[in-house]
């Protein structure tokens, strides 16, 4: 599996704007000059979440990073509506899983150690490591978990993508 980056806000706020955008686009029915269907909007959000950025430099790609966080939050909000899951996520599970893999299986960044020294569970002082991409990745992990737990996502569909190799690579992330 290819290595891919992950992105999210620490505590995503599920906006109703994505529901309105999907509902509004679905009422239009099709693509007319400049208008997008709900499916097009959904696929655009997934594609936006596949973009990778240099997170160590907060001054680069600020607009793209913000758009990505918004898209991740909107995708998470879509999981709250079973109609959206059945209409958009499940039929496009291949690209959704590609986005998840691109974000989860990514090269690990060089992490700067913070000046905050805390006590570990063993009572030994340890320096905390801060991954600047984590706020952009957490939402993808949450989206993945919500997708797996979603009633509309059947086991047969997910088994095609969540293979023993996928699980092995996922578990190896915890070894890093």
How many H/I helices?
Answer: 8
How would you describe the shape?
A: globular
* Major sheet characteristics: 2 strands, antiparallel
Distance separating the two termini: 17 Å
Using only C-alpha atoms, the radius of gyration works out to 18 Å
The pLDDT mean sits at: 77
Number of strands: 2
Strand order, biggest sheet?
A: 1-2
Q: Structural class from helices and strands? A: mainly alpha
Q: Which blocks of ≥5 consecutive residues have pLDDT under 50? A: 1-31
This entry's quaternary arrangement is single chain
Q: How would you spell out the order of helices and strands?
A: HHHHHEEHHH
Helix content: 40-55%
β-strand amount: 5-15%
Structural notes for this entry:
The protein is mainly alpha-helical. It contains eight helices and two strands. The chain has a two-stranded antiparallel sheet. Helix 2 crosses helix 3, helix 2 runs parallel beside helix 5 and helix 3 packs parallel to helix 6.
SSE order and pairing:
Elements: H1 17-28, H2 38-50, H3 62-78, H4 82-89, H5 93-104, E1 112-119, E2 125-130, H6 138-149, H7 155-159, H8 164-173
Antiparallel strand pairs: 1-2
Helix pairs in contact: 1-2, 2-3, 2-5, 3-6
């Amino acid at each position: 599996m290819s290595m891919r980056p992950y992105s999210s806000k620490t505590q995503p706020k599920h906006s109703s704007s994505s529901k309105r955008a999907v509902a509004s686009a679905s009422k239009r029915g099709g693509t007319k000059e400049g208008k997008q269907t709900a499916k097009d909007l959904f696929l655009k959000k997934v594609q936006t979440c596949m973009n990778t950025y240099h997170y160590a430099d907060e001054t680069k790609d600020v607009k793209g990073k913000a758009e990505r966080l918004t898209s991740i939050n909107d995708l998470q909000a879509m999981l709250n509506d079973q109609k959206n899951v059945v209409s958009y996520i499940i039929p496009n599970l291949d690209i959704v899983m590609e986005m998840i893999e691109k974000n989860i299986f990514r090269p690990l960044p060089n992490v700067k150690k913070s000046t905050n020294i805390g006590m570990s569970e063993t009572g030994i002082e340890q320096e905390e490591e801060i991954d600047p991409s984590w706020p952009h990745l957490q939402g993808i992990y949450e989206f993945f978990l919500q997708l797996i737990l979603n009633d509309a996502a059947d086991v047969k569909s997910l088994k095609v993508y969540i293979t023993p190799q996928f699980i092995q690579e996922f578990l190896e992330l915890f070894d890093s």
